[in-house]
Write a structure and sequence with these properties.
Layout (H helix, E strand, L loop, with lengths): L16 H24 L7 H29 L15 E6 L5 E3 L1 H7 L22 H14 L3 E8 L5 E12 L5 E10 L1 H19 L36 E8 L10 E7 L5 E7 L9 H15 L7 H10 L8 E8 L4 E8 L5 E4 L2 E4 L4 E4 L5 E5 L5 H8 L2 H4 L5 H9 L12 E8 L2
Antiparallel strand pairs: 1-2, 1-5, 3-4, 4-5, 6-15, 7-8, 8-9, 9-10, 10-13, 11-12, 11-14, 14-15
Helix pairs in contact: 1-2, 2-5, 6-7
C-alpha cells in the first residue's frame, strides 16, 4: 500500500512543534476574546436579533474550541476520541487500490461510519451502500470525476450507521497516479460534520425568525410566519441537551418561541441519565413569565437532574420536585410529563403533574396517547412525542394523525421538524412551547 493513508498528503511536511504551539496560543487568545465579547453582549440577547447574535457567538466558540483540539492533535499525535459534542469529529482516512480492488481504512474512519474495526473495509463499489439513497448520485459523481477526470473530491453526503442514526460526512480526496501517469488508487479524508451543520442550521433558523417575526403593533399588520424547524431553547447555553442521544434512544428536541413582543419563557424540556444506562426525559410548563430569560427553567431542570441522579423514579418525581421547588422562589410546575426508559428491557415508565399533554406513542403508522401513569414495553422504531403546546384535544388529534410521517425511516430530529412545522400544534401567540422526540433504536 502506498503511504497516502495518512490524513496529511505526503508532499506536506508536518509543522514544527514551536509553530504549532504558537498557533494554539493564538487560537486560545482569540477564543478568550470572543467569549469576553459574547458575555458583554448578554444583556442585549432578549429580542430575536439578540438571540441570533448569541447563536453566532456560540457557534464561533464551538469552532474555536475544535480548532484548539485539532491543533493539539497535530502537536501530540493521535488521541482516543474527540471530546463529546464536538462540532468537528476526528479525521478518518482511506485508500482504495484500483489495481487490486483492496481498501485500507484508518481506525478513525471505522468510528465515523459506526463500523466494527475488525470488519473488512468496503470497496468503492460497496461504499454507496452506507449512503442515503438520495445522496448516492452525488457520491457516484464525485468519485467518477476523480477517477476519470482527475478532479479533487470535496463534498458532503449523509450516511446511515448500523444503529440507524444518520450522520453528515465531508469527504476530500484525489487520485494517486502510478509511474505511467495512470490512476492507481484514490485516497480520501472524511470527517463527521453533523454537529457543525446542526449548529449552522440553528443560526440560520434564528436569523430567519427575524425576517418572519411580527411587525410592530402600530403597523396594524403581522408578518407572515412560515413553518420552520424548532429553535434552540433559551437555556441551551447553560444546560446542554444530549444531542448524541442516550443508550437505546435517538433524542431530539426544539423550542417554539411565542410571537408576543414580550415573550414568555415558561416551557422547558430535558433529558439526562436516570440510573445506570436508563434515561429520564421530560417536558413541561412553568406558570407566569420568567423575566430573566431562562432562570426559572434552569432552576427547575437543575433540581430535576439532581433527583434523577439520586435515582428518583418518574412516579415519585412530581411530589419530590414540588417539595424541592417549595424551598425556592418558583411555584410548582403548571404541567409536566416525566418519562423513564430502560434500554435493556425497553420499558417506559411515565407520570404527569398538573394538567399535562400526555405522551404520544407512535408505532407502525398509528399513534395513541399514554394517559394517566403507567408502564409500557416499547419496540425498535417506536417514537415518543412530548409536546407542551398541544393543550387542546384537536391539537392532540392532529399530532396523532401525523403517525404515517412520524413512523417513517427518519431520525428524531426529523420528527421534531414535522411536529414543529404543523400550525395546528403550535402554541398561542402569547405562549411558548417545547417539542421532544425519543425514537427507540435497535
Amino acid at each position: 500500500m502506498s503511504p497516502h493513508l495518512s490524513a496529511d498528503h505526503p508532499a506536506a511536511q508536518p509543522p514544527g512543534r514551536g509553530s504549532v504551539e504558537s498557533l494554539i496560543s493564538q487560537a486560545r487568545r482569540l477564543r478568550g476574546d470572543v467569549d469576553a465579547v459574547r458575555r458583554d453582549s448578554q444583556g442585549e440577547a432578549a429580542d430575536p436579533r439578540g438571540r441570533w447574535q448569541r447563536a453566532l457567538y456560540d457557534l464561533a466558540l464551538h469552532q474555536l474550541t475544535d480548532l484548539d483540539a485539532h491543533l493539539a492533535q497535530l502537536r501530540d499525535g493521535p488521541a482516543p476520541a474527540p471530546r463529546p459534542g464536538s462540532l468537528l469529529s476526528r479525521v478518518g482516512s482511506a485508500e482504495w487500490n484500483l489495481l487490486t480492488d483492496e481498501a485500507d481504512w484508518s481506525g478513525e474512519l471505522f468510528q465515523i461510519l459506526g463500523r466494527d474495526p475488525a470488519s473488512t473495509p468496503l470497496s468503492l463499489d460497496e461504499l454507496p451502500s452506507l449512503v442515503l439513497t438520495e445522496d448516492r448520485p452525488k457520491l457516484t459523481a464525485m468519485v467518477t470525476d476523480c477517477l476519470v477526470d482527475g478532479r479533487p473530491i470535496d463534498g458532503e453526503f449523509r450516511v446511515v450507521r448500523p444503529d440507524d442514526t444518520v450522520r453528515t460526512v465531508h469527504m476530500m480526496g484525489e487520485p494517486v497516479l502510478d509511474a505511467d501517469g495512470s490512476t492507481a488508487s484514490m485516497w480520501a479524508v472524511l470527517r463527521d460534520v453533523s454537529e457543525l451543520r446542526r449548529s449552522q442550521r440553528a443560526v440560520s433558523e434564528t436569523r430567519d425568525s427575524l425576517r418572519h417575526r411580527p411587525l410592530p403593533a402600530d403597523t396594524g399588520s403581522r408578518a407572515a410566519v412560515e413553518p420552520r424547524e424548532a429553535a434552540s431553547a433559551p437555556w441551551h447555553g447553560l444546560l446542554r441537551f444530549p444531542h448524541q442521544g442516550r443508550p437505546g434512544l435517538d433524542l431530539a428536541a426544539g423550542y417554539l418561541p411565542s410571537s408576543d413582543p414580550a415573550p414568555r419563557h415558561s416551557a422547558w424540556y430535558d433529558a439526562c441519565p436516570l440510573t445506570g444506562d436508563e434515561t429520564l426525559f421530560a417536558a413541561g410548563d412553568l406558570p407566569g413569565v420568567d423575566t430573566d430569560g431562562a432562570q426559572g427553567a434552569v432552576m427547575l431542570i437543575g433540581a430535576l437532574r439532581g433527583l434523577a441522579l439520586a435515582g428518583t423514579r418518574p412516579g415519585r418525581l412530581p411530589d419530590r420536585l414540588a417539595g424541592l421547588l417549595e424551598a425556592t422562589a418558583l411555584p410548582p410546575v403548571r404541567s409536566a410529563v416525566y418519562c423513564g426508559y430502560a434500554p435493556r428491557t425497553r420499558s417506559l415508565n411515565w407520570a404527569g403533574a398538573g394538567h399535562p399533554v400526555p405522551p404520544l406513542l407512535f408505532r407502525a403508522g398509528a399513534g395513541r396517547a399514554l394517559t394517566g401513569q403507567g408502564e409500557v414495553t416499547l419496540e425498535p422504531g417506536d417514537l415518543l412525542l412530548l409536546h407542551t403546546g398541544a393543550t387542546e384535544p384537536a391539537a392532540v388529534a392532529h399530532l396523532l394523525s401525523l403517525a404515517p410521517r412520524l413512523t417513517g425511516p427518519g431520525s428524531a430530529r426529523d420528527g421534531v421538524r414535522i411536529a414543529a412545522g404543523e400550525p395546528a400544534a403550535r402554541p398561542a401567540p402569547t405562549d411558548d412551547a417545547c417539542v421532544l422526540v425519543a425514537r427507540v433504536t435497535p
